[in-house]
Amino acid sequence: MTKVSISFAGAAGLAGWPDFPLTLVRQLQDEFPQAHINLIQDPDRRLAELADTEVLCAVRFNKKDLAIATRLKWLHLTSAGATHVLFPELVESDVIVTNSRGLYGIPIAEHVLGMMLMFARRLHDAYRLQGEGKWARQEMLSRFSLIAELHGRTVGIIGLGSIGLAVAERCQAFGMRVVANKRRGGGKPACVDELLGPDDLPQLLAQSDYVVVAAPLTPETRGLVGEPELRLMKPGAFILNVGRGAIIQEAALIQALKEDRLGGAGLDVTDPEPPEADSELFHLPNVILTPHYSGIRSHYWEHAVALFRPILGQYLRGEPMDNVVDKRGGY
User: Fold this and answer.
1) Residue 140: how many CA atoms within 13 Å on its side-chain side?
2) How many angstroms separate the Cα of 18 from the Cα of each of 25, 39, 169, 178?
3) Is the model's pLDDT at 208 over the cut of 80?
4) Among 101, 147, 280, 330, whose CB has the most other CB atoms within 10 angstroms?
5) H/E stretch holding 210
6) Of the candidates 68, 118, 120, which has an alpha carbon nearest to the alpha carbon of residue 90?
């Protein structure tokens, strides 16, 4: 019988995460009686439980885990990114890795729109002034030329995967012009006005009022946006990163923000993460910084299992599996 282990929350050291619901364990067991669905709850038992696990559903996995899990054939990640587990030993192994691409599009896209609206309507300024106990009408009127709307503006999306596509759909609904690039070919979605290739990044940056980084971290995207790229952006444009912090060269970004070459930056990810305690990102007035939680959504586990369930069925039936990660490509 195939042992399918689920390791989250306390058993994986994920403080703050809700426990995996036992009702979902029972539902999976009822649907797949040919498998043993095993919820690892005790952190002291985690490694022992991995020893005979064939399928592991988790978000963290390391070299020690792989050395213990000698029967492991498939690792399913509840994250969309996979680079945090792609250490050489796993890459060289026969273990299949899948991710949860498609789980995070809606919450992250709404998070992006929230940041964009904050910048456009200067809500971050008004909120800071509220904290000072001010009815700051005069101060906000002094920002008259900076207060805008998203309608009619251009958004450039770097990485048109499931998250980038969700951002594009919502930006179009706000009346924005949508420009996007992607590495792989395919037709232009209806919500995208102009689809560019990976070599057309300068063209995307030069015409965008808002740049949204939604690409995965790979060797090709690491440090993709540096000083030359930031100088290609419109004066006063905004950049938002919900991909990975290392895609933007942080020192160059901070300098551009300090010089007011950019209107602002909305960052849900940083490099390093968390930022150093003395990082200027905490104090720059044109930065909205959130601690990597844009993917959190209501009924999280129900949505996560809804994505995992059909892939588990494919695995047990010996069929081609969805969401397989290219371990060498990094996504």
Assistant:
1) 18
2) 14, 14, 30, 36
3) yes
4) 101
5) strand 210-213
6) 68
Assign domain 2-103+297-317 one CATH number from 1.10.8.60, 2.60.40.10, 3.40.50.720, 3.40.190.10.
Answer: 3.40.50.720
Residue that is written with structure tokens 């929350």 in the block: 9
77 three-state secondary structure? strand
Residue 14: predicted pLDDT: 65
User: What tokens appear for 74 in the block?
Assistant: 């498939």
Residue 12 pLDDT > 70 = no
Determine if the peptide bond prior to 272 is cis (ω within 30°): yes
Contact 194, 216 (CB under 8 A): no
Tokens of 144: 């008259």
Report the catalytic residues: 244, 273, 292
Output the pTM of the full model: 0.93
Residue 9 has a pLDDT of: 60
What is the C-alpha to C-alpha distance for residues 168 and 155, in angstroms, rounded to an integer?
8
Q: What is the CATH superfamily name and number for domain 105-289?
A: NAD(P)-binding Rossmann-like Domain (3.40.50.720)
pLDDT at 23 over 70: yes
